[in-house]
Design brief:
The chain contains seven helices and eleven strands. By secondary structure, it is an alpha/beta fold. Strand 9, helix 4 and strand 10 form a beta-alpha-beta unit.
């Protein structure tokens, strides 16, 4: 296990250094989007063509904006971070950004509603992702966060375009990287991957009429609070390692 984990990290480091070359010198560009409710912005990095990391709830899903930027830096993928589209009213309603709806975070999908402004925000986000992809979108990775007690001990990854074998490989890569990286005192979160495990967060709405309906392959990653706060750097590095290695089967010719 230790030898396999070390090989995993060495391979990741080599590709990380290549990724630095891809993204070096490309500054993040904040792009304002005005709505009648409040302004919001998108931050865009152009990295490896065809691979994009998205953080559509960069403000309301705590620290997913930071995680998205760090993942892009470590992997060399492109990046789009959306900020300022939450807390539209006293109830905490937000534009969902990655789909043309509004809702309160954590509310059932059936309570989401489409509005003209939500469509405007979603279409602007689509354009930014397309810009970051610089061509066909081969792999799209969304980063989200939740605070639900039932999923506090795990990451959940909903998928688009992956076979069951691909899901097993992704799960195994995560477990090997986790076991190689984490110290004895650090929380060893499980990973549940769609088609292998039953998910709480299946991203059904985004798959039906949002960003996950667009790319050939996509990962929708739900991070519990502990992976976004106290152990954010550790789990961000772990996810970067997994993403780098999984491009070998997630992206043709990867």
């Amino acid at each position: 296990m230790r030898a396999r984990g070390l090989n995993s990290l060495v391979f990741a480091l080599a590709l990380y250094l290549q990724g630095c070359g891809v993204i070096a010198g490309k500054a993040a560009v904040p792009i304002p989007v005005e709505t009648s409710a409040q302004p919001g912005t998108f931050q865009v990095w152009k990295g490896r063509p065809g691979a994009v990391i998205g953080a559509p709830h960069g403000t309301s899903d705590r620290d997913t904006d930071v995680i998205g930027r760090d993942l892009a830096r470590l992997t060399g993928f492109g990046l789009v971070v959306a900020s300022g589209f939450s807390w539209l009213d006293a109830d905490g309603r937000r534009f969902n950004v990655n789909r043309p709806t509004e809702s309160v975070p954590g509310a059932p999908a059936r309570l989401e509603g489409e509005t003209p402004e939500a469509w405007r925000v979603y279409e602007a986000y689509q354009r930014r992702v397309s810009e970051a992809a610089q061509g066909p979108l081969a792999l799209y990775v969304e980063v989200h966060g939740n605070a639900h007690h039932e999923s506090a001990g795990r990451l959940e990854i909903a998928t688009v375009g992956l076979s069951r074998d691909d899901a097993w490989r992704l799960k195994t890569l995560f477990e090997l990287s986790r076991d190689a990286r984490l110290l004895g005192s650090e929380p060893r979160l499980d990973v549940w991957v769609e088609s292998v495990d039953p998910l709480r967060y299946s991203a059904a709405m985004a798959k039906q009429s949002g960003m996950l309906a667009t790319p050939r392959r996509a990962l929708h990653i739900e991070l519990p609070r502990v992976a976004r706060t106290t152990y954010r750097e550790r789990y961000t590095g772990l996810l970067a390692d997994v993403l780098i290695q999984s491009t070998r089967f997630l992206i043709p010719g990867g």
